[in-house]
Every structure is written in structure tokens, then in C-alpha cells.
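Sequence in, structure out. First:
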Amino acid sequence: MDRRAVYGPRDGTVLSQQSQHRSDEILDGDIDEVLQAKRADGKFWKNLREQDLPIRVQQILHQIGFYGVYRCGRIQYDCHLITALVERWRSETHSFHFRVGEATITLQDVQIIWGLPIDGEPVSGTDLERTSVQWQEYCMQYIGFAPEEGELKGSRLQVKAIIHHILRVHITPDTPHLTVVQYARAVALLLLGGTMCPDSSGNLVSLLYLAKLEDIVAARNYSWGSAVLAFFIP
């Protein structure tokens, strides 16, 4: 008997991509490979363990709606569990297929875990055609520093460049409000690129998110929870 008739989908009309699915490799005996996640947030969270963010910055993160992500801290990944879940995820139905039935990630899950806003405007936009110099000027205006040209890759910025910047800046009660806001935007980018919507490169974050953070007051009007859910469910 064909093993795929036992371990694969009983009806191939719905799960039609079984031959390209990772679980099909199990039937060929390739069951020892454990997926490893690419992460770019290690140094950021390590620094936060040594010293919390300044209260003024925390207040702005709360205003944006990212405070829950900051309070949850660095999530410890169980790579074996993630591997098992990947083997049970089906893009045809956008759900995990377990022996007890189907399950999926919901918007309520994202809201409860991280407290992100789920109502409001969609987080969307288009990739802008800017030169490296224009991106450098943009970063200087909104996050307080101009990255080196080698730290930019199109509209994406190296996470380590942002980390190096925030480690150099010291926020005090006398720090100008503009500097505090720029610092908070930089931290928000790190949360987006390292935790909420991590880039597959493991070291880049899209500067397109920064357009939604230009106005700190209006930033909470975006449905960040919906954006995170859409990012994690292909």
C-alpha cells in the first residue's frame, strides 16, 4: 500500500499541494531536520534585561499600541514545536491540520497576547523609489540618525544599525521631546523588525513601517494586530 494513502490527505481535491508540502518529506525518511528561526532581536532584548527603557519612551510605546509587545519581552522559541506546526500547516486552508481537527491563528489571539490595536486603518503602502541619500535623510528626521550607505538595502535598514544608535543615546528627564520621540520610533522599528514582523534575512527591517509612525498620535489608529496576523499567515 502507498504510504501516502495512509499518512497523506484522504481527499487530494482540497489539500492539492501535498507533493510540495514539507510533511511529504517525512514519508521519505527525512524526519530529523529541525527548522531554525532567523532572529534579529537578541542584542536589543539583552540590553533591556540590563536596563529598562526610559519611562518617557515607554509612554510613547503605550500611545502607539506597542507597549504589550515590549512588556512580553523576547519570546523563547521551541524550534521542535515550530517544526511540528510547520509540518501541519496547510496554505490551501490557512489552518493547522491536527488529528483532532483544524485550528488557526485568530485576530483575537494577537490582541490578547500582545495587546495590539485591531481596529482602525490598514497598515499598507507601496515601496517608495528613494536613493540611499534620501533614506538617510528620512532616517535622520524620524529616528534621529543617518545610517551608513552599507547599512541600507533598498528600503530596508539593518537592525544592528538601529541597536547601535539607541545604545548611544541616553534619555533623561531633560532630553528634548523630539529626541525622545525619535528614540521611541527607533525602538518601535526594532519591535516590528525583530518580533512582530521579522524579516526573513534576520537582520533587516522595512523603513516603510516608519511612514505609519511619523505621527505618533495617529499611529495608534492603525490596525497593527491585523498587520501582524497577515504577516504570519501566508
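Second:
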Amino acid sequence: MKTIHLLFISVLSIHLSYTQDIKPNEVKNIMKKVADWQIMHINDAYSNDKPHHALHWTNAALYVGMAKWAEMADNDTYYNWLKGIGDQNNWQLHERKYHADDHAVGRMYAALYGKYNQKEMLEPTIEQFNYILHHPANTKLNWATPYHQDRWNWCDALFMSPPVWADLYSITGEQKYLDFMLDEYKATTEFLFDTEEHLYYRDERFKGKLDKGTKIFWGRGNGWVFAGLADILSNLKPETSEYSYFLDIYKKMADRLIELQTPEGHWAMSLLGKEFYPTPETSGSSFFIYGLAWGINRGILNGPKFKKAVQSGWKAMTGYVNEDGMLGYVQPIGAAPGNASANKTEVYGTGAFLSAGSEIYKMVGAN
């Protein structure tokens, strides 16, 4: 009995250390620092030689995290910044009607609708998605087929578009949005999900390929998926079959991800090849931290192994923020494992970091 008691005390002390080492005010301070730096540098060029369009998917991923930070901030400065972007662009989605990347900004519109309840914020998105419902793309998911990206045939797409459909379902209560999203999500998962590794191939071109003897599962690509799953689940009722479907994928990925985390706290750009890709990559890693912390905060992921993974990951991410507030080691735009460095950043990396911080802040006991 004494041994059991001592073991309980030991486990409890480990559990507490995972959260007490991170202070809520420190989380909030570094989130503000990173958010402020990014807003000051929003018109910089990053992966390319010119700034991204305000509605481009890169910025849309930033806005997702910035909206989460805006909810935490002490004033409406960040909400006003986001609202200004919506106003300047008449609350439109980006250029391509079917392409998931160009739907992603709708996530920011839904978040702002949740605060302001102004119907003009969502009307263009609803109109476009209703068109898609009545004129669905019938293209194949194979990469070389015509108009293949009119459907979600690459794993990044599962972050860009499905959560917007889930948002519309949650806001309007109309089942049609959820039904369409679920059918398309299932098609993508059947096409790209590896049932042995519980990870997603980036797209068809990587299925069956090896990199130094390992299957190629892109870190950020799976980060897109995992963060998107958390956001989809947030819009669904736990007692529904749809929730069970997404929860099953989420749990399988969560279990695999903590097995693949590096001793330094980040995840490799090629998830199964960390010895070949030792350089940190903060955008994918931040998305994993966000998704894991989200599950901890909702009682879905239990046990010290998850808290340890999240705390280790968050400490690693904050260590890659420079004194000015720039998050380094963000892999530039790509579709496969590549390169990152301390002086490389991107707006979606900031968005992922802010998303992670929003859940870390809750996890460490902030009110």
C-alpha cells in the first residue's frame, strides 16, 4: 500500500510540473509579442518575392490564430485589425470557387460573425458554398486528372475548407453543410490516410514512395489535418455519429504523434525520418501542440504522456521566437519535407503558434 501511495504522489507531482512550469501570463505575453510583430510585418515578402494577398491561404491560417488571440487580448485591437481586412475585401472568399485554399479565409469571417453577429460577414461564403452544394465537383482525386484540386485531394485542404463547412453548420444549424463536408472528408481520408501509420500522405504522388527507407508523411501537412480536426470537432455535438467519425481519426493521430515527437520537443518535417530531418519546423509542430492541447482541455486526451508532449513542444516553440517577436524555423511554402532556418518565418507559422498558445493558456489554468 505504501508503494502504491508513493507512486501516486510521484505521478501527481509529474502531472503538476507539466503545467506549473508554464505560467499563464508568460503565455499571453509571448503571444502578444508574436502577434504584434506579425501585424507590423504583414506586408513583408516571405516564401516569394512579394507579399501575400490578404485573402491568400497563408494569411487565412494566420487569421485563424489571430482570432483566437483576439479573444484573449485585453482590448479589441486585434479584432479591429481582422475586421478591417474583412471590410476591405467585402467579406469575399478568395479567387477560385472550388479550391479549398481559397475558402480558408471564411474561418476568420465565421469567428468575427461569432463576435459581431453581422450577417454581411458570412453572406458571400454562404452564397458560394450553396452554389457548390448544387454544383458539386465530380472530378477524381487522382493528382494528374483535370481540375483535381476542385476536390480535397491533398491533405492541406482538410484544414482550409472543411472547418468552414463545419462553422456554417454550427452557425446556421443546416445539416446540408455537414453532410457535404463529411462525404468529401471521407473520400479524402480513404484516399490519403495510411491505416498503419495513422497519418496522411500529402497527396497521391507520395503514396508508395520512400525517403531514405521511410514513408513520406509531411510534418506540416499532417499539422494542417490535425488542427483542422480539432476545429471541426469543436463545431459538432459529442453524441452524434459525425463527431464519432472525426474523433476516431483525431485519437489515432494523437497517439501516433506523441510517439514521433523529437526529444527536443518539435516534430520533424518528415514525421518518420527525424534522423534525416533534424532541423526544427515550427508551423507543423505548433499545429500539433494546438491539437493536442485542445484534446487535453476537453478531457479527450488523458494521462501525463500528453501533457508532457505539449509542455515540451510549447517550450521548444517559444525558444524559436527571437527578441523582436518573430517565430523562426518556419518551412517556406511547399508540399514536402524541406528546409527551415532560424531567420525564416511565414504568416501561417504565426497563426499556428497563436492557435497553440490559445490552448496552452487554457491548459495551464488561466481563467
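Remark: The domain at 24-363 is CATH 1.50.10.10 (Glycosyltransferase).
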